[in-house]
Amino acid sequence: MITTRPLFIPVILGTARQGRESEQVARFVFDEVVKREGVETELIDIRNVELPTTDAGEAIKDARFSATVERADALIIVTPEYNHGYPGLLKHVLDTNLKEYIHKAVGVCGVSAGGFGGTRVIQNLLPVLREMGLVTIFWDGNFSNAGTLFDESGNLLDNSHVQRMDKFLKELIWMAKTLRYGRENINLEG
Ligand SMILES: Cc1cc2nc3c(=O)[nH]c(=O)nc-3n(C[C@H](O)[C@H](O)[C@H](O)COP(=O)(O)O)c2cc1C
């Protein structure tokens, strides 16, 4: 059986920092997802995921965030590069789910002030996502020189990102469809 309902692919904005450049990138990525037929999306700002810091993991679930991830067929994580790593708050938020992620696709967009498009934060995030049961794709979003990507009105200055995002989304959607078929039709126990 192949399900025909739309895929649900939320975009997670992975920093709460005041003045974050990643917000514009997340909005650009979100807008590109909105254009896809047969895909529904939502922008999740981790500022709005309210969690205590005195515990960690599934003990501190935010009901709305968990329900959104549960409904998702794939995730897109937009993460800035902080000392070659991911923001601690992003990890804190992601850690609150586990079974909600299993056998779902994930793509990562890195955002950096430097010229490597967040490649180092992406590499560091991949093993975390794997441990969560997510399936990573082999395309990334790489957004270098974050402060100069958009003009004052928020328009993207380098259109090559549109083509790159097209390839990224095609791959993510293929993986999301494939995994949804697997979740719904293939028994893990054989
Ligand atoms: C704590 C911290 C560490 C950072 N480390 C790096 C880094 O390792 N490499 C880099 O290219 N930019 C680094 N930056 C700059 C961010 O990548 C830059 O601010 C970019 O715009 C994305 O982050 P933002 O969404 O918070 O603006 C760092 C910024 C902060 C706040």
Describe the 3D structure.
With 190 residues, this protein is of the alpha/beta class. It has one domain: Flavodoxin domain (Rossmann fold), CATH 3.40.50. The chain is 36% helix and 16% strand. The protein has 5 helices and 8 strands. The protein has helices spanning 22-34, 63-71, 88-94, 119-131, 160-185, and strands at 7-8, 11-13, 39-40, 43-45, 74-80, 104-111, 134-136, 141-143. The strands form 2 sheets. Strands 2, 4, 5, 6, 7 and 8 form a 6-stranded parallel β-sheet that branches. The protein has a two-stranded parallel ribbon with strand order 1-3. The longest helix has 26 residues, at 160-185. The protein is globular and about 50 Å long. The site of flavin mononucleotide has 15 residues, from loops.
Q: CATH homologous superfamily name?
A: Flavodoxin domain
Strand percentage: 15-25%
Number of E-type strands: 8
CATH architecture: 3-Layer(aba) Sandwich
Number of helices: 5
In CATH, the topology is named Rossmann fold
Total domain units: 1
CATH class: Alpha Beta
Strand pairing plus helix content: what structural class? alpha/beta
Question: How are the elements arranged and paired?
Answer:
Layout: E1 7-8, E2 11-13, H1 22-34, E3 39-40, E4 43-45, H2 63-71, E5 74-80, H3 88-94, E6 104-111, H4 119-131, E7 134-136, E8 141-143, H5 160-185
Parallel strand pairs: 1-3, 2-4, 2-5, 5-6, 6-7, 6-8
Bound molecules: flavin mononucleotide.
Keyphrases for this structure?
Rossmann fold; single chain; globular; 190 residues; binds flavin mononucleotide; six-stranded parallel sheet; alpha/beta; 36% helix; 5 helices
